[in-house]
């Protein structure tokens, strides 16, 4: 099912929806303050079926800030904390849910990007540049290298990662971490394609998807029969592809589930217990085709209004847009956490935001 931003605004009520976007943006200017009204107008319902997931008296909160490009959130219930990557600053940050402290967990971190907690409660990290590997942090703090080469050649730039219930580890390997000097160090790729990989319980590394251009976020459906993967450079837009997962760990049945058209851009995402996809959202950075006059200069602005795109888009398992959670910064990734696994944590450019909902993370 192809969903466009134009269609989403229509679903929200046309001009009324656009007006609501403007009011929410005005209410969330910096310095950030939670909206004083309930229900929070930043939570925009695009389909009535989402209403059951909204908590009337819950609002978007900014719980931490000071990063340069926030990514890869992972929640650890035993310790009541969340880890996330601050990629350009080459560090992993730690948010303590119990006392609100935001501290450095690891620095340097080899430009860590995606993080996840495995089934044993250990941290698995995509080291996005320099080392270009996937590691596991053992309970004693030592690092185990899980993957750094495929067929004798170095990986590109491991990006996002998920652990299946059978303890296999799946990760994407685009080029972002070696394309420039912002998220790591520029390097020449050695792999001919940008793949999705599976690390077996025996440590064997297998390329399960090889035909996507810069795969990014990935997640499984609650029953793990579907694998969803973001393609960064889609045809022509960023997309989420759905694959059937076979018992032997291979995938097939490729189907486009979501098309982020009309300036929208997908990034990291998570799935709740009902199979809904909660997706980081923002501008794709595309320039308008014609310049405009501004302060005596002719400039090329971004297409659309990025302020109307920053946040989280929620889709049902069939790819229908259900809701948009408006944020003052572009959301790169998110995860569910909290004592009840219903607190949505959103890594968004410089900051970490949170919203308690009636949905629960699938894992």
Description:
The model is unreliable at 1-28 (pLDDT under 50). The chain has a 5-stranded antiparallel beta sheet. A 4-stranded antiparallel beta sheet has the order 2-29-28-27, with no helix packed on it. It is globular, with a radius of gyration of 20 Å. It has 2 helices and 29 strands. It has helices spanning 5-12, 15-27; strands at residues 43-45, 61-65, 70-76, 81-86, 91-96, 102-106, 112-117, 123-127, 133-137, 143-147, 149-150, 153-154, 161-163, 169-173, 195-199, 205-209, 215-220, 226-231, 239-245, 251-259, 264-271, 277-283, 292-294, 297-299, 311-315, 321-326, 333-337, 343-348, 351-356. Helix content is 6%, strand content 42%. It is mainly β. It has one domain: TolB, C-terminal domain (Neuraminidase, 6 Propeller).
**CATH fold topology:** Neuraminidase
How much strand content do the residues show?
35-45%
CATH class: Mainly Beta
Q: Evaluate the radius of gyration.
A: 20 Å
Please give the count of helices.
Answer: 2
Write out the CATH superfamily name. Answer: TolB, C-terminal domain
Mean of pLDDT = 91
Q: Describe the largest sheet.
A: 5 strands, antiparallel
Strand order of the largest sheet: 1-26-25-22-21
Q: How far is the first residue's CA from the last residue's CA?
A: 25 Å
Structural class: mainly beta
Assign the CATH architecture. Answer: 6 Propeller
Shape: globular
Protein name: SMP-30/gluconolactonase/LRE family protein
Signal peptide: 1-26
Keywords: Hydrolase, Signal
Domain SMP-30/Gluconolactonase/LRE-like region: 69-350
């Amino acid at each position: 099912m192809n969903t466009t931003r134009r269609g989403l605004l229509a679903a929200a009520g046309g001009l009324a929806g656009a007006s609501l976007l403007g009011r929410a943006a005005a209410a969330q200017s910096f310095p950030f303050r939670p909206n004083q009204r309930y229900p929070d107008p930043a939570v925009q319902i695009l389909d009535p079926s989402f209403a059951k997931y909204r908590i009337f008296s819950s609002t978007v909160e900014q719980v931490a800030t000071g990063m340069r490009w926030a990514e890869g959130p992972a929640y650890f219930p035993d310790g009541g904390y969340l880890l996330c990557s601050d990629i350009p600053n080459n560090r992993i940050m730690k948010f303590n849910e119990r006392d609100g402290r935001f501290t450095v967990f690891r620095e340097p971190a080899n430009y860590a990007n995606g993080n996840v907690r495995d089934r044993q409660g250990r941290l698995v990290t995509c080291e996005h540049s320099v080392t270009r590997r996937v590691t596991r942090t053992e309970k004693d703090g030592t690092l185990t290298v899980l993957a750094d080469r495929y067929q004798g050649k170095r990986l590109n730039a491991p990006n996002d990662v998920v652990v299946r219930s059978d303890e296999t580890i799946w990760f994407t390997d685009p080029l972002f971490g070696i394309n420039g000097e912002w998220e790591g160090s520029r390097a020449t790729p050695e792999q001919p394609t940008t793949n999705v990989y599976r690390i077996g319980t025996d440590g064997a590394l297998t390329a399960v998807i090889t035909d996507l251009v810069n795969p990014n976020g990935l997640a499984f459906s609650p029953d793990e029969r579907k694998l969803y993967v973001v393609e960064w450079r889609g045809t022509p837009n960023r997309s989420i592809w759905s694959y059937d997962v076979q018992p032997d760990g291979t995938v097939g049945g490729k189907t486009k589930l979501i098309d982020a058209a009309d300036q929208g851009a997908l990034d990291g995402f998570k799935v709740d217990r009902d199979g809904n996809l909660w997706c980081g959202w923002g501008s794709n950075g595309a320039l308008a085709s014609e310049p405009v006059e501004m302060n005596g200069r002719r400039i090329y602005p971004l297409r659309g209004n990025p302020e109307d795109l920053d946040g989280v888009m929620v889709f049902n398992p069939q790819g229908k847009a259900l809701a948009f959670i408006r944020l003052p910064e572009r959301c790169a990734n998110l995860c569910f956490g909290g004592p009840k696994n219903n607190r949505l944590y959103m890594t968004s450019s410089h900051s970490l935001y949170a919203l308690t909902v009636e949905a629960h993370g699938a894992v």
